[in-house]
Amino acid sequence: MTALRGLLVALGVAALFAVPKLTGNEYVLALGVSFATFGVLSGGLNLVYGYTGLLSFAQVGFFGIGGYTAALLVTEQGWSLLAGAAAGGVLAALVGLVIGYSSLRLSRHAFAIVSLSFALLCMIVARDWVSLTRGAMGIPGLPIPSMKLPGGLRWRLSQPADFYYLLLGFAVIAQAAIYLVVTSRLGRAMRAVKLNEPLAQSQGINPLSYKLLAIALSALLAGMVGGFFVFYLTIVDPSIFDFYYTETMLIMVIIGGPGSFWGVLGASAVLAALPDLLRFTTDLRMVLYGAVLIAAMLVFPGGVGGWLQRRRLKRWRRPSLAAP
Amino acid sequence: MDPGFYLQLLLNGIVIGVIYALVAMGLSLIFGVLEIVNFAHGEFYMLGAMLAYFLTMNVGLGYWATVLVVTAVAVGVGYVLYEALLASLHGGGFERSILLTLGLSMVLQNGAVFLFTTTPKMVQTPQSYTNIVVGDLRVSLMRVLALVLGLLAFGALYLILYRTRVGRAMRGVAQNRDAALMVGIDPRAVSRLAVAIGIGLSGLAGAALAPVYAVHPLMGFSFVFKAFAIIIIGGLGNIAGAAIAAVALGVLESVVGGFLPLVMVDALVFSSMIAILLLRPQGLFGRGVRV
């Protein structure tokens, strides 16, 4: 990251943190929470699909597992929110490893289908394991959580602005983690696995371990953000596993450009705000999303990020005019 | 409980299993020949059922005419689908094909919800309440007809795949695309036919099931996931394996559903799929066609 870009990012994050001070408008804060949450989810999906080349439908399952785990641990075991969300993330990552290990032995095709079935299985379990998850009614009325801050202070998250800070703070950490991974040796290895698996293998890269790493990290982040998000909603019920989340995440990654960190982040911001701007009914919005997905696959498979990348490459390859 | 009850459950299970098989075989055929996982497959089943409802209730066509028209329309839709969308994907792009068909499924499903609402509709004809009684057994005529249709479709698919030149070409492409090209098989024509047959089977399944169960826009969505589990359990691209797994699943659902909440069966299906991948990654019956 160049110094200029670093400065811009720091300014952008500072501006986002300043929003509650500038406006008390809860609607704006809700959009911010939605952006932070979906940003983490789509960033994780981008890590798995965009960088490692595994199409995954399991993100929503990890999200919901994190939500349920945090809600149950906080309400029934009296854990703190942070510990509950962390436990949810860890559980999601473990589940992700099991799914990834079992299906990737066969092929990435099998992984796609198994991840889908896993997400559906999660919804079925949430709906029908009534003694644990309380069935279709879910767990309503989650308490106002509080967190210990350094210095013996307690932070009660009673206002929408508190959740805005919490989710934005977590999103910044999560995005930074994703950024560090994709720009490091790990990210390059993942990309190599995506582009040409046998070639990557011949260079001493073990594809399975990088695939599992991508799945586990994305599951950890999705699970944790799920844990925070359900306390913002104050309810967790089986609809947290709704296919709607999956479709929205996929659209964000596809439009932003699989394998493009900033593209996906930008698309998450735009698409988190867009549904509220386009006041359609959900059905029509999903018809529109579907049409966008078809169009993107037919004419624009690289998304915005891919398009920018192609333009940059073209510029680099242009013969210099100064040359004789 | 008397044996008649079990026999009844078994028979109901076979009927629903045969319908599952119609959808799953089409899915498996399309995967085998095109290497495309068709996420929109269930929506064609839903549209087939919707069309059957419309033809029976609003146009007043008879049972067989409805089935014929729906199947013909579905085959036509399959051709159009291949030419309009899937042909541009040829070669490479498993993920692209999933996302493309997922988009199609979103458009069709939510479009249907928008146009018809999610209220379930029942196809009711004078024959709806006719039962066939054999000893203790009492089976509705519509279920028997669905079973007959399914078996006819099995037979037709078998004859096409194993007794015609084009069927042989289809299996050839599924086994080895390059070799098939080399001996002069046009993969495009074969793929088009495979999609048309696959979608046609799906539409037929919808038409056969419409008089038995309620018709609503979300019926395909839940159904297609079960079909995915079936083709994984049966072995990806293995059409006969898919059929066996589908019928077994239908029977299991029906028999277990007689004692346990049906939802447990759903969980059982998906967990058994993951277990089978762990223990026997090539599916229970291996790959009939190599992909």
What does this protein structure show overall?
The complex is a heterodimer of chains A (about 325) and B (about 290). Chain A is mainly alpha-helical and about 325 residues long. Chain A has a domain at about 25-245. Chain A has 14 helices and 2 strands, in the order H-H-H-H-H-H-E-E-H-H-H-H-H-H-H-H. Chain A has a two-stranded antiparallel sheet with strand order 1-2. In chain A, helix 11 (about 245-255) runs parallel beside helix 13. The longest helix of chain A is centred in the last third of the chain and has 27 residues, at about 205-235. The mean pLDDT of chain A is about 85. Chain B is mainly α. Chain B has one domain (about 5-280): Orthogonal Bundle (ABC transporter involved in vitamin B12 uptake, BtuC). In chain B, about 75% of the residues lie in helices and about 5% in strands. Chain B is built from 11 helices and 2 strands; from the N terminus they run ααααββααααααα. In chain B, strands 1-2 form a two-stranded antiparallel sheet. In chain B, a hairpin with a 2-residue loop joins strand 1 (about 130-135) and strand 2. In chain B, helix 2 (about 40-60) runs antiparallel to helix 3 (about 65-85), helix 2 packs parallel to helix 4 and helix 2 (about 40-60) packs across helix 8. The relative contact order of chain B is 0.21. At the A-B interface, helix 4, helix 5, helix 11 and helix 13 of A face helix 4, helix 9 and helix 11 of B.
Give the SSE layout.
The complex is a heterodimer of chains A (324) and B (291).
Chain A: H1 3-22, H2 26-51, H3 59-77, H4 81-104, H5 108-128, H6 130-133, E1 146-149, E2 153-156, H7 160-183, H8 185-195, H9 197-202, H10 207-233, H11 243-256, H12 261-277, H13 282-299, H14 303-317
Antiparallel strand pairs in A: 1-2
Chain B: H1 3-34, H2 41-59, H3 63-84, H4 94-116, E1 131-134, E2 137-140, H5 141-163, H6 165-175, H7 177-182, H8 187-209, H9 219-234, H10 239-257, H11 262-279
Helix pairs in contact in B: 1-5, 1-8, 1-9, 1-10, 2-3, 2-4, 2-8, 2-9, 3-8, 5-6, 5-8, 6-8, 9-10, 9-11, 10-11
